[in-house]
């Protein structure tokens, strides 16, 4: 509840895992405040509070967000404030370099959370980034290498001194290499089955999570009181389940191997005796009251067939599955990763126990494969999850099986529903631009969606006009057109940004008459003036007050206009325009007419024009036609079979090139 | 010489490693015959011959090419020939899906060569592919997972039965986990030094390789006789060195640990006694006469400080470095990877020996780090090399050190010269389109490079005109313009491809007069008619013979024209046009005029227009100006310092967005 309070009052943007927001940022959506200092602090403190309250949430997601926040701190404006300037800093003035930096920060977060430097790079590549260049791979790799070396040194220091749980593997690091793991071709069907069921469980998890999040969203919007009640209720349910259920579990004698013996709750140690006599342990309590990391390590350890009772494992699976779904929606920093790994590991053990002696595979291996299949079913990542699991278990011989299980569970789950981050983004209403085009987009031309009144400026424009347009619209870019007397016919000169116009208005360097400005005008401005402000920090048009006299003056926009905007002809198919928009990473795409008889610009496309909601709003018939967007139908099962039928239509877009 | 003979006579495209060609193909350059069946066969047979002749060449590169060839076999045309048809096959009809398939094949090749499934995926991502999508990651991952599982099963089978060297690790698989490797902060300076020297050695290697390849190119072009003499000379030099030098090495007593004892040359086993008495071995001969894989395994093995003499290691380093440079240029399938790993490993041991007791690091670890630094210095790959080395050594604890060494050596080498594949591509004259823009491109507009006579077709065009244009130019795409009476003013209708025009001419479905065709005309064609033929297999205009009468008839091009070509305005900067061209993966980019007074198209940009050679040909002043292209200067050292000076100019392009 402390965590919910600080999140609600100080930084609402810190709620949740943060991975969807980082993903959206790297896709080009600047959500307000996601990288502010207060978000960073609340994320760290709130995450510690939430995780240590035994709430069934993880810390990996918040660590990714923290990494991204720290990267975003290297912001020109903020560095200026602290008198940190330098020539190299100017590279951080543009969106692309900032995105790169945030990508590196997020990889560092993953690398730190899992002690998995390669996993961090691949996670960023597979799940976070929308654009990827070879040099970014190299930078992200450098970042995670530094993380790995620092971690390694800290562990070295901590093993000698006293750093609490840190040196002992407070971060996850499972060593299951003690025994060589053996598997053969006959085990493959079982592994495939594990993958299939994991995929189904994973997509069901996503489906239920979506429903629960929708309900929570309504509750959370009602105010801070409701949020606290919700958080309290979830905590209460969690506590009740954790403390009540172990009473029903049987006591088992302590294994000899453990050095620490069986401990009471609250102490460190893997085996908790709970209500049992000393030298006995309660297996359910051992699972519930260890830290998540310890539980996962226990589940992954090999040669431990006898440690857990069959019913305890099934009960803990149900509890973990249920709590994972209900806990995430709390307005507090909370990750999804660790609960999913834990639930998956328990699921794997379940399958192992149900198979009993019919399978020769180790139960620890079942747990690893269970985690993989559940991760594949919910998060739909393949390579990165595979590498993370490998780096966690430090056993490369597992690779083929882990790969197989991930592929199967992802394929199965993909037929039912989208991945969990997409669902969360959609619930938050963030206009995330997908990488692929939808079939119905081939039926439309760009002129069919670029609707709405177009605001155009002349090369030399009256100040009052600019102010009026900026005040009455929310657009961020405006086409600039040269008309007589500056050119013989109206021609498109370029695109001017709202933020640049505001800089010009603030400067008040206006012209008394409608004429071209002198060539030296640009010397009055430095490139810093036009540097992109960090999200939400730019000046607004309302803050600028101009006199009547100034309003009647003119600005020559020519020196401040981007003269090479990307353009498409109005008859171009929407699918192709989307490819251009997405691949080149645009924010504005000008639509020019096919014939020259009309105005030189007929529209402007932004991210919102490519959103399915917008397109279906303009063309409701598309929803009813053959090219119906599958997402708008009810049951995932119906979707599945329609998906099979329409598979060919989906794929044929790729033959455009 | 057998290998050179079959390569020269049957498939010249099979010469070399094949990785540069695969890279160029994935960049959009279809070199003739690189994926033909004869290339595949020659590559396999020739590679076996070249490697088994003790030539200092590798098999990894050819395996990548073989993988790509096998993937390219799934070609629609070829499958048709064998009556393999099916609905899913139509996805292979377009360039993008074929590229994806080839990428997967190449990853499978790497995965098989190094038994490194993740390394395969990352290699394809980092070094081969020019465009990358999330779904491709997932497909490549699936391919390498299958490779890993099949390999695993074959090894299982071979350990029981008799498969020669295969089950024993004929492919590389080093197990150096026997001892835990310890390193501390004090070892870091040494590791950094190792990286710096590795980077310098690597870039020197590239530099010398480029010179040698230029000389060889001249020799090889003179004919098959010269090629055979060259190959014979290199073989002779190799044999002389390998058989002569061990005579100067001292004999050492056989280690007790080895089961097989010290063997004569020609037998398997790690220690060769050469001229030494039995129970003694010659360390230089042991390095030279083992297979490369065995040598690398010996060098990587830990706790083996005493196995090799200091002078033997230095001599073998020099020999390996020299032979690596002179062997690659032979006209035979030959890889670069394994020689570089071996040379790097020996280099690492060298440094380890020179440090002597001043360093506590294991010499096996030195060898691993030496390989990493030399790979980083020559190939400039980071993540993939790191993963391959990790999967080879099966020891994740090495990760931080390997990463560090790779980063340093790559950074150092990057300041001197380009990576080895780029150099080879440049020597072959392949127009490889780089991912980044050069500073001078911002100074130019697209109209400044889109030169040459533009050939335009009318919407309804006379057959004789089409034939004439196709015969007199080599262009692959032509703008189609609608003029009166089909439109009020001339408008750009779209872009028609040469290959489609040839299909139309072959069909002879002409119109007697200049009018629009009926709507049903497209029914006469199936999509297969316009499917892209595999490289070099399409019909040529010379093969089509038309009568006088037919030449006077017309074709309505409207139904066969791409009506949504990507266009740029003539004033757009070349840098931005390149971004569009590269990111969207275009082959033709139409240049439209800014004002509508002239023809609706003023030029067409293709890959060649973006090549530095073309641009400097048109604008020689650029070479002399401040934006001088650094590549055109002599010494790598001069380049280095100019690179430092111009660093800011290079980077500022990235602030375009």
TrEMBL record, chains A, B:
SMART domains: CBS. Signal peptide: none annotated. It is a multi-pass membrane protein. Belongs to the chloride channel (TC 2.A.49) family. Pfam families: CBS, Voltage_CLC. Keywords: CBS domain, Chloride, Chloride channel, Ion channel, Ion transport, Membrane, Repeat, Transmembrane, Transmembrane helix, Transport, Voltage-gated channel. CDD domains: CBS_pair_voltage-gated_CLC_euk_bac. The chain crosses the membrane at residues 101-125, 131-151, 163-184, 190-208, 228-249, 311-344, 365-390, 396-413. It comes from Platanthera zijinensis. It comes from the Eukaryota. This is Chloride channel protein. It is found in: Membrane. The gene is CBSCLC6. InterPro entries: CBS_dom (IPR000644), CBS_dom_sf (IPR046342), Cl-channel/antiporter (IPR051280), Cl-channel_core (IPR014743), Cl_channel_pln (IPR002251), ClC (IPR001807). The keyword Metal-binding does not apply. GO terms for molecular function: voltage-gated chloride channel activity. One of its GO terms (cellular component) is chloride channel complex. Residues 561-621 form the CBS domain.
């Amino acid at each position: 509840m402390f965590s919910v309070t600080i999140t609600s009052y100080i930084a609402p943007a810190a709620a949740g895992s943060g991975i969807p927001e980082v993903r959206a940022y790297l896709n080009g959506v600047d959500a307000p405040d996601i990288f502010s200092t207060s978000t960073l602090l609340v994320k760290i403190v709130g995450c510690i509070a939430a995780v240590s309250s035994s709430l069934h949430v993880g810390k990996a997601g918040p660590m990714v967000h923290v990494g991204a926040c720290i990267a975003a701190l290297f912001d020109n404006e903020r560095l200026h404030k602290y008198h940190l300037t330098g020539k190299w800093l100017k590279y951080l003035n543009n969106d692309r370099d900032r995105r790169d930096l945030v990508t590196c920060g997020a990889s560092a977060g993953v690398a730190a959370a899992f002690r998995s430097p390669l996993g961090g790079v691949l996670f960023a590549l597979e799940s976070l980034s929308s654009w990827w260049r070879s040099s970014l791979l190299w930078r992200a790799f450098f970042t995670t290498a530094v993380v790995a070396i620092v971690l390694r040194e800290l562990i070295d220091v901590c093993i000698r001194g006293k750093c609490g749980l840190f040196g002992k593997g407070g971060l996850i690091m499972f060593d299951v290499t003690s025994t060589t793991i053996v598997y053969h071709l006959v085990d493959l069907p079982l592994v495939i089955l594990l993958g299939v069921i994991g995929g189904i469980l994973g997509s069901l998890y996503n489906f239920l999570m979506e429903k629960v999040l929708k309900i929570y969203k309504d509750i959370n919007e009602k105010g801070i009181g409701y949020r606290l009640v919700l958080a309290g209720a979830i905590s209460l349910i969690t506590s009740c389940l954790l403390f009540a259920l172990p009473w029903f579990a049987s006591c088992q004698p302590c294994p000899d191997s453990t050095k620490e013996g069986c401990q009471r709750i609250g102490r460190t140690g893997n085996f908790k005796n709970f209500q049992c006599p000393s030298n006995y342990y309660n297996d359910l309590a051992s699972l519930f009251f260890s830290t998540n990391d310890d539980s996962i390590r226990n589940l992954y350890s090999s040669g431990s067939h006898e440690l857990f009772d069959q019913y305890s494992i099934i009960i803990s699976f149900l509890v973990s599955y249920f709590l994972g779904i209900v806990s995430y929606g709390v307005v507090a920093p909370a990750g999804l990763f660790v609960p999913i790994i834990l639930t998956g590991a328990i699921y794997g053990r379940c399958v192992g126990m149900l198979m009993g002696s019919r399978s020769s595979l180790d139960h620890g291996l079942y747990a690893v494969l269970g985690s993989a299949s559940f991760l594949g079913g919910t998060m739909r990542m393949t390579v990165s999850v595979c590498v993370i699991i490998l780096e966690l278990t430090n056993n490369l011989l597992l690779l083929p099986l882990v790969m197989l299980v991930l592929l199967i569970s992802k394929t199965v789950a993909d037929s039912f529903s989208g991945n969990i981050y997409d669902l969360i983004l959609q619930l938050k209403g963030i206009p995330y631009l997908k990488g692929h085009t939808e079939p119905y987009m081939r039926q439309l031309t760009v002129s069919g969606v670029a609707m709405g009144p177009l605001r155009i400026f002349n090369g030399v424009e009256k100040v009052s006009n600019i102010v009026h347009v900026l005040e009455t619209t929310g657009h961020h870019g405006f086409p600039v057109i040269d008309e007589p007397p500056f050119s013989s016919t109206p021609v498109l000169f370029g695109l001017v940004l709202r933020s640049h116009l505001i800089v010009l208005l603030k400067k008040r360097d206006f012209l008394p008459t409608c004429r071209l400005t002198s060539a030296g005008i640009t010397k009055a401005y430095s490139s810093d003036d036009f540097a992109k402000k960090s999200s939400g920090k730019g000046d607004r048009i309302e803050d600028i007050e101009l006199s009547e006299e100034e309003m009647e003056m003119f600005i020559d926009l020519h020196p401040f206009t981007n003269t090479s905007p990307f353009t498409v002809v109005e008859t171009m198919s929407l699918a192709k325009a989307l490819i251009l928009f997405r691949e080149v990473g645009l924010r504005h795409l000008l639509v020019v007419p096919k014939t020259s008889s009309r105005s030189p610009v007929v529209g402007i496309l932004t991210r919102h024009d490519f959103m399915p909601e917008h397109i279906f709003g303009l063309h409701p018939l598309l929803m009813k036609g053959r090219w119906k967007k599958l997402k708008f139908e009810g049951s995932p099962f119906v979707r599945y079979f329609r998906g099979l039928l329409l598979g060919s239509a989906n794929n044929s877009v790729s033959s455009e090139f």
